[in-house]
Design a protein that fits this description.
By secondary structure, this protein is of the alpha+beta class. The chain folds into three domains: 61 residues, OB fold (Dihydrolipoamide Acetyltransferase, E2P) (Beta Barrel); 66 residues, DNA polymerase, domain 1 (Orthogonal Bundle); 45 residues. The chain contains nine helices and five strands. A five-stranded mixed β-barrel has the order 1-2-3-5-4. A hairpin with a 2-residue loop joins strand 2 and strand 3. Helix 2 crosses helix 3, helix 4 packs across helix 6 and helix 7 runs antiparallel to helix 8. The longest helix is centred in the middle third of the chain and has 15 residues. The chain starts with a strand and ends with a helix.
């Protein structure tokens, strides 16, 4: 089992797979979208915690910059109906704090907004992980700007499906509530 890989960034193969060279070996790592967006320049050093997923005909590596995200990914894989691609999609669309908050609040609509997760799987996700995530620290304010933007757009009367699609595109940790809201409104106006 590989705990982490530290090496040099070589290339981006697809929109979620990179190659990192370490010790003369090129490791293909699947990364969540926010991590991929913050990738280092070519030949720059990088370090990722790794989850190895073994399937019948494939061995895949999933990389995370924080141990918390790696642990959450592993917990998501334990939920029936959640495979590595769906778990990676969750961690690409939402921060670990947002996922923990959604599970704690039984926010089935938010979790179900991810492709591959229906209402039934989102409900199972909340039931299976609520106790395991109960003690996770997500900050003193459990509401994120992300949830506030969703609430504001809902109050403005936009359709839920369109709201989730727009918010996923603009939600990042470094944007304030007002910046996320402006960008989401611009997307919804198109």
């Amino acid at each position: 089992m590989i705990g982490y890989v530290e090496g040099k960034w070589i290339a981006e193969l697809t929109n979620s797979v990179i190659v990192l060279t370490a010790g003369g070996i090129g490791y293909q790592l699947n990364l969540p979208a926010p991590l991929l967006a913050r990738r280092p320049a070519a030949e720059e050093p990088a370090r990722y915690f790794v989850v190895t997923v073994v399937r019948d005909n494939e061995i895949s590596l999933y990389g995370f910059d924080q141990l918390e995200n790696k642990t959450l990914f592993e917990l998501l894989l334990k939920v029936s109906g959640i495979g590595p691609k769906v778990a990676l999609s969750l961690l690409s669309a939402f921060s670990s704090a947002e996922i923990v908050t959604a599970v704690a609040g039984d926010d089935v609509a938010l979790l179900g907004s991810i492709s591959g997760i229906g209402k039934k799987t989102a409900t199972r996700l909340c039931l299976d992980l609520k106790d395991r995530l109960a003690n996770w620290e997500v900050g003193s304010d459990r509401r994120s700007a992300h949830h506030d933007v969703i609430s504001a757009l809902t109050n403005l009367g936009f359709p839920e499906k369109e709201i989730f699609a727009a918010v996923r595109q603009v939600s990042t940790d470094h944007l304030s509530f007002s910046d996320q809201l402006k960008k989401a409104l611009a997307l919804l106006a198109k």
